C-alpha cells in the first residue's frame, strides 16, 4: 500500500491478462492493492484462497489469529496506526459471523477494512448448507458496502471497488463474500484500480463561500473553541489544524477518537471533551461564543444532554459526511469537504489572535480539576496503586512516544486522559462501539503495521479475558507488543455506575480471576506482576526496554472511580469532579 | 424546523443491485419508522432504479433520512416531497363472483361511475382494476364490499414530482469525468 506501483498494477495497466483461478485472483488483487499483511483464520469455504496465499507467501504474510474476532480487530489496529486498509479473512458461517463485532466497530469508528469471507458453492446458496450464513445480509447494517461474488470473473472489479470504497471519503469496512465455485473456477485476470463509482461521492466539493462564512464568524468571536475528532487524523490534517489553532489562538479540545492529532503538550490543547473528559473544555462548551467542530460527529458521550449543549454558541461544523450535518447539533455554518483541504482554505482567511483572557479560563478550570482529581490520580498518597500513576510511568519511560492501544472501560478513560501523545495516530481505542476485547488484537495489528513504534496495550482484567486467546498469536509470531493489564478484579466502569446510580448493588461485576502471569508464562511471554508502588517504575522500565513481547500485570485499587464524569443525560456543564 | 408529522414521499434513485433494498429498509427500521408503502421500478434513466417510499414523519426526520440514504454507496440521489409537491396514484384490483355482475345490477353502475376497468370475466369470477387516490379506492372497496369481494389488493403509491429531478445531469457529469 505504499503508494508505489506494484508489478501487478503495471501489468494491469498494460492490459495483459492471464488465465488463473478465482482464489489466485483474490491474492493477486490484494498484492496489487499493496497488502503485505492480512489477518485471518482458514476453514472449508475459504480454503482455495489459503492455498493461493501459500503460493504467494513471499509477497503477502498471513497472520493466523486464534479467533476471527481477533483477526478483525488486528486489521483495525493495523489500519488505525498506518492509515492503510486493514484486511481480515475468514471462512463461511461461524468464521464470517465472528468477524461481525470487529466490522461493526470499524463502521462506527470509520476504519478502512476489507473483510473477505468464503461462502458455500453458489448452487447451495439458500439451502441451509453446512456453514452457510447470509453474511452479506447480516453485515449490511454494519458495513459501508458489502457484496457477494458468485463468478470468478467478477473478482478483480469487485475487489478494486472494495478497496476504493473502504479507504475513500469517510472510510469504513467493506465485506466481500466469495462462493467456493467462484474461487475454484478460472478467469482471465487483469487488475485495474477503481477510481470512482458513479453512485458514490466520497468527498463533497469544498464551497469557498462556506469557508468564508466560517472565517467571518471565527474572526468576530471573543470566546471561540475548537473540538476536533478523528476526521483530522483520517484526513491527515494535523498540520493544518495546528496552523489554524496557532494563528487564531483558539483553545482546542478533542474527542476520544481525535486524541493525539495535536501533541498533548501543545499550549492550546485543552484536553478531552465528553463523559470522562477534562473539566475545562466540558464546562466551557457551554460558555464559548463559537464552537468549531472539526471532523467529529457530536456523539452522545461527547454532548451529554443535547437540549443544553452549547446553546449560547454559534456552531461551525467542518465535516466530510453530509449525513452528519445537523444530525445531532444544529449548525450555523457547515463546511463540507475533506478536513485537510477545508482547513488549508480557512487558514489564510483567519485573523491572528491570542484570546488570552479566554484561554486563562481554561487554565483556571484545569487548576481546579488538577486539585480535585488529577493530583490524586497521578500522585496518589493512598496505599493502593492507581491506574493514573501507571499511565504516568508509561509516559515517562516511553517519553510520550508510545502508541497506546486501550480496551474499554475505566482504564480506557484513564489511558486517554493521562497518556502523553507526541505523535499522531497514537491513540488506538474502540471509541464508538465500546468493544471489550479490542485492545489485545488491535495492538498486535498496530505493532505489525508500525514495527518502528512502541505499542503498549492497556487492558482491564475484564477485557483481557475477552480475546485472551490472541496471546497465542503473539507467541507464534513473536510480535514485540507490550501488554499492561490493570487488574482491579472488577468490571470497573460498570461497578462505578452501580456504586453511583444503583446503590452499590454490584450485580455480576466482581471477577474471580485466574493467575494471569501463569497464563502469560504458558505462552512463554516475559512477565512481571506489580502489586506495590515501589515496584512500578522498575517494571515499566523493563517492559519498555524489552525487545520482545512483555506482559505486565498491575494490581490496582479495586474500587477507584473515574472522574470527572458527566452523568448520562446530564448537561456537559454539570460535569462532576467527585 | 417543522415538527408536524406529515406524509412524505421519498424518491430514491439507485443502482440496480441485490441487497440495496435491505440497506434502505434498515435505515427506516433502525429509527422505528413504519413504511406505509414501498415501490421500486426502472426509472426514466436506463439501468437506474427508482424507489418510491411513503412514510409519516416530521420534516426534520425526513431530512436526516435522506442524508442516511444518500450515504449508501449504491444510492445515487434521494429526495423527499409532500403530497402537494407530487402527482401520485395507487392502483387496486378486485376479484368478485361472476353471478353478482348479473344478480346485482348496481355493481355495473358502480363500475361505470367510478371509471373502473373490467380486466377479465369468466364463469366463476370477474376482475376489476382501478387507479386513483386512496380515498377513491377506499370508496370503491366499501361499495363493492356490500356485495362480497373474493380478493382485494392495492399497490403502493407511485409518484412523480412537480419539480425537475436533476439526476440525469448528475450521472452525465460522472460519465464525463
Automatic annotation (TrEMBL), chain A:
It comes from Snuella sedimenti. This is Acetolactate synthase. It is an enzyme of class 2 (transferase). Its EC number is 2.2.1.6. PANTHER family: ACETOLACTATE SYNTHASE CATALYTIC SUBUNIT, MITOCHONDRIAL (PTHR18968:SF13), THIAMINE PYROPHOSPHATE ENZYMES (PTHR18968). Its cofactor is thiamine diphosphate; Mg(2+). Keywords: Amino-acid biosynthesis, Branched-chain amino acid biosynthesis, FAD, Flavoprotein, Magnesium, Metal-binding, Thiamine pyrophosphate, Transferase. It catalyses: 2 pyruvate + H(+) = (2S)-2-acetolactate + CO2. Belongs to the TPP enzyme family. The keyword rRNA-binding does not apply. Pfam families: TPP_enzyme_C (PF02775), TPP_enzyme_M (PF00205), TPP_enzyme_N (PF02776). One of its GO terms (cellular component) is acetolactate synthase complex. Residues 211-346 form the Thiamine pyrophosphate enzyme central domain. CDD domains: TPP_AHAS, TPP_PYR_POX_like. Residues 21-136 form the Thiamine pyrophosphate enzyme N-terminal TPP-binding domain. The keyword Magnesium applies. It comes from the Bacteria. Pathway: Amino-acid biosynthesis; L-valine biosynthesis; L-valine from pyruvate: step 1/4; Amino-acid biosynthesis; L-isoleucine biosynthesis; L-isoleucine from 2-oxobutanoate: step 1/4. Binds 1 thiamine pyrophosphate per subunit. Residues 407-554 form the Thiamine pyrophosphate enzyme TPP-binding domain. GO terms for biological process: isoleucine biosynthetic process; L-valine biosynthetic process. GO terms for molecular function: acetolactate synthase activity; flavin adenine dinucleotide binding; magnesium ion binding; thiamine pyrophosphate binding.
TrEMBL record, chain B:
It catalyses: 2 pyruvate + H(+) = (2S)-2-acetolactate + CO2. CDD domains: ACT_AHAS. Signal peptide: none annotated. The keyword NADP does not apply. SUPFAM superfamilies: ACT-like (SSF55021). GO terms for molecular function: acetolactate synthase activity; acetolactate synthase regulator activity. Pathway: Amino-acid biosynthesis; L-valine biosynthesis; L-valine from pyruvate: step 1/4; Amino-acid biosynthesis; L-isoleucine biosynthesis; L-isoleucine from 2-oxobutanoate: step 1/4. Coiled coil: none annotated. One of its GO terms (cellular component) is cytosol. Catalyzes the conversion of 2 pyruvate molecules into acetolactate in the first common step of the biosynthetic pathway of the branched-amino acids such as leucine, isoleucine, and valine. Dimer of large and small chains. This is Acetolactate synthase small subunit.
